[in-house]
Amino acid sequence: MQLNKLLLLSLFALSGCGTTDPLIKVETQVVEVPVPVACKEEKPPEPEYCFPKLTADQPIYEKTRCLLSDRQLREAYQIKLAAALQACK
Fold this sequence. Notes:
Strand content: under 5%
Oligomer: single chain
Order of helices and strands: HH
Largest sheet: none
Number of helices: 2
Distance between the termini: 82 Å
Radius of gyration: 41 Å
Shape: rod-shaped
Helix content: 40-55%
């Protein structure tokens, strides 16, 4: 009887050594999270337009020439603004 208990106890002890390891897998996952960053790009200086400086008694041709040059200045300024905005993205 004592031998059966000892045999049974050793059988249980040895059966614990024969089990497999638990199925725990360690995986590293990369999660990309957008982080807000302060933009360090400075706003380009606004050009000086000539149309506000014109007077009412100046000829229409001079006003037209001034408006056309202001339009080119504005377009160039918008390109600079778009480049500064793109640099912040």
